[in-house]
Amino acid sequence: MAHQTDASARTASTSTSFLRRTAWMLLFGVAGLAGVAATAALQLTIDPTIAERSGLPADASLPVAVALSIATPAVLAVVATVVGTATAPRVGFRSFVHDHATDGRRVWSRVRESAPRAVVVGLATGVGIVALDVVLTAVVPSAAPTGASPGSVALVLASAPARFLFGGLAEELMLRWGLVSAIAWVLAAVVPGDRRRAVAWTAVVLAALAFGAAHLPQAAASMDLTLPVAARVVALNAIAGVVFGWLFIEDSLEAAMLAHASAHVILLGTALVGVA
What we know:
By secondary structure, the protein is an all-alpha fold. Helix content is 80%, strand content 0%. The radius of gyration is 20 Å and the shape is globular.
């Protein structure tokens, strides 16, 4: 009877720990969803026709349109958080916030140590994406976007919350913490021998391709999505995904987040120059 009581206590403790760690990690998703909601509200206020182009009901009120815009990302964030929290520690990936929820380790001092490299890598990635895009569209003119909405400085600025909070935080939570960890965990279970590095990099590349493909619906809402244009969108975002994935497996989820957000500094600036 005592053994059964001890076992029940350990099970309850494990369940509580998992829920606590999941709740802490989900804070990244909540921040990202807040960014999407803010951007949606701002852009729909500036240009109500965005609702129809984005597949939202044209007659929906602003609160309903904003709620619909975060519905799918919210589900994905929850699923990715649960999956990542269950698998990432098992394949050796880390998050400073997860470590804090697990055993109380400090977060900010560790983030500060990772920040300089992550920010530099992120800024360089943004510059590289812009440069590669220029070269790619010059070499393959058909890859240049056509039928794109003209946009405005106000609309581009309104995209900042989604870029930095959803892109920098929630996308990394979903794609690196959730998807990379899940793929690596499955591969580690089926690939013979101790090939952790090969498994990790395979997971990073596969998730990066998914990251690129995930940008296609957004691209289709603002431009004619021909095959060359789609290939350009996937390739540019996949390259970024590999870089962020490298930081994730070599450093931490927070390093990948800082790099992703830093890349958007360059991309946002470029977008502003393009519409100014």
